[in-house]
Amino acid sequence: MPLYWLLLTAVLTTPPAPQSAPAPDPGERAFQRCAACHSMRANDHDNPGPSLRGVLGRRAGGASGFAYSDALKAAGRRGMVWDERTLERYLADPVAVVPGTDMPYQGGSAAERAAVIAWLRRQR
Ligand code: HEC
Predict the structure, then answer these.
(1) Residue 59 is part of which domain span?
(2) Which residues form the Cytochrome c domain (predicted)?
């Protein structure tokens, strides 16, 4: 049997590579950074940070059942609400936006922040 025939047979009988799993949403991927401290289960505040389920549109420090810093509670009392803009600024530099907040800086690029904020908005 000619060599090229053996090679052709090998190519034709090699099973196709399994379909790779769909790439996770970039926002979901970026949330892995947050998941160490934040649950996405509603009212699951038994973590270092409050649950982020439904956080878009929520008053800062507004989830009942989580022991926020005085600084974040005061920001909420002054009318701070989490939207794309406030969240972007807080994630970029928490202490600059809410001096005295307990959340440490998370790092990450502007693109990752935008992706995680969009993803959080979709988690209703
Ligand atoms: C090391 C732990 C930790 C990580 C990681 C972390 N956070 Fe936090 N986060 C906290 C803590 C603690 C608070 C409460 C801060 C306070 O009370 O001042 C908080 C508060 C928040 C709040 C305010 C919630 C509210 O109800 O007012 C948002 C929004 C938030 N985090 C988003 C994020 C996002 C998005 C990420 C990932 C990019 C992230 N956090 C990563 C610890 C963390």
Answers:
(1) 22-122
(2) 22-124
Closest ligand 1 atom, residue 71 Cα: 18
Give DSSP secondary structure letters for 48-111.
SS---TT-TTPBTT--TTS---HHHHHHHHTT-B--HHHHHHHHH-HHHHSTT-SPPP----HH
- Name the residue of 29, 31, 33, 37 to mutate for ligand 1: max ligand atoms within 8 A of Cβ: 37
pLDDT tens, position by position, 75-107: 999 999 999 999 999 999 999 999 999 999 888
pTM: 0.86
Going by alpha carbons, the residue nearest to atom 41 of ligand 1 is: 34
Whether 49 is in the pocket of ligand 1, judged by its Cβ within 6 Å, is yes
